[in-house]
What does this fold into?
Amino acid sequence: LFQMPRIWLDYCQFMVSQRKITRSRRTFDRALRALPITQHSRIWPLYLTFARNLPLPETAIRVYRRYLKLSPENAEEYIDYLRSVGRLDEAAVRLGAVVNDENFVSKEGKSNYQLWHELCDLISQNPDKVTSLNVGAIIRGGLTRFTDQLGKLWCSLADYYIRSGHFEKVFDSYAQFEESMIAAKMETTSEMGNDEDDDIDLELRLARFEQLITRRPLLLNSVLLRQNPHNVHEWHKRVKLYEGNPRQIINTYTEAVQTVDPVKATGKPHSLWVAFARFYEDNDQLDDARTIFEKATKVHYKQVDDLAAVWCEYGEMELRYENYDQALRILRKATAIPSRKAEYFDASEPVQNRVYKSLKVWSMLADLEESLGTFQSTKAVYDRIIDLRIATPQIIINYAMFLEEHSYFEESFKAYERGIALFRWPNVYDIWNTYLTKFIDRYGGKKLERARDLFEQALDGCPAKFAKTIYLLYAKLEEEFGLARHAMAVYERATQAVEAEERHYMFNIYIKRAAEIYGVTHTRSIYQKAIEVLPDEHARDMCLRFADLESKLGEIDRARAIYSYCSQMCDPRMTANFWQTWKEFEIRHGNEDTIREMLRIKRSVQATYNTQVNFMSSQMLKATSSATGTGESESCSTSLGTCGRPGMDRAEVQLEQKSVPTAVFGGLKDE
It folds into this structure.
């Protein structure tokens, strides 16, 4: 009885009642395949009810798409379902297809315009969800199609642009609407004749359109500020728009500082207060500017830096008017210890209780004290900065330089010592570098042991990145004021302590200074150590220089031994310069036997490097063959000659023949 719809309906209802989703769906599909198409209308209502009640909409969407192939006139039901499950993009596409179908008849009795209006509302109110349609083109098409409904359609287009964040297009749409209304009015007036009331109406529309164009930047700014009233940048732009209108500027600044919440602000909220005070300052209303700054210092900013910037700007304003004492009083007030101390990064405390630890304010106060205050007041400020532990290496150096300028040399050295106690590597590098340089300039060799202790302290824990400068300074001290052997010991330590890429440079200095102090013969041990520890690239250079030194000293055998040692790290294909140098050496100082020995070594080294290359090539070939040979082995028998090792050997021989140049011994024709 597979063609009896009643039995299929009972069976499907029975499966649905058991909540067996997949089995129920398959049962419905079997029923549709078994029954003739004239009886499908009895199955589909139950199938659609089952699909709509499923937890995930994907199954229902696929079922509906099949259903609409049979009954496209029920598209509205599918569109309503899509809107209910949030699939607005497909709903808009389906609704657009319905609107464009001139033969579609709504089962709900809706006209084509009503369907169009639903489409406009759907796409204009959900610009982020409807992405498959050109919304602007659809609504503008409606403007030409439904000329009696221009107002609603323009509003839909504006609503779409607003929700999309395209505020400039909102204005453009409004301007086009006004322009089209003026054009229509002018056309009507020309056809109907001149009328005084029509002329007045036209003049009003033209005036409104001109005002709209003039106010465009201000309107756009108003929209952005309504969207985010805490946008500091937009408030500054609004002030510029009122340039030349002082009353409006004051009103705008007043509204801005009252509206912007420093915690929610986008941008720097203190800049509004500073700009407000600067406006009064530019108009020579200094008392009003001071009032603004005083109010600004009481605002609960989110960051301490905002309040510190206000205090600094306040002091700079007084400096511009040469009120130096007032500027000092302002910054001393800003750095005064509050009644309730708080940590700088404690966000639970207001910034007014934390600004006393702001380095920005203290730095400006220190500069003013140096320029305007006394020695004792300036020294007290720097000491206070160090006690609060907010000093930077530059502050320490400035403090020491200030003391040195006033001939307090030991005090300046104590300032360096305090700074060194505050910082670790690498931040302490600049302090140590300046301290050691100043100490040597001041005392020279008079306090040599103290200077040595300072250098040893500096080098204790010094990273390799910063060791070179300090070691060179240390060695220079020993050369000028100490002992030569101490200087050599410092150079020796430096070659081990610096970074690997700087060792070659340090060995060069070491060799040069040793030759100048002790003579060239003393450099032999240095050359030997350099050749041992340096990488091949630099070791080859050291070998050539060492061999040249020995040949100049007449030690031909020693030079030949050095060349022989260096040859083991010189591939003839890559380091032709070395082999040419050795060849010229043997031509000058050797004989037939030594040249033959040199060529034998060259062949040996060449063979060694060729073996390494061939071994690597063999390994690569094996890896490639193992990847491709698995599939081939399935079709091969046990014949080793075809798929086994002998074939691999032939391939390796061919690769070796290709990897060794034909003229590999071309450079040995002299033999």
Observations:
- The two ends are 104 Å apart (CA to CA).
- Residues 135 and 282 are 50 Å apart (CA to CA).
- Confidence is low (pLDDT under 50) at residues 628-671.
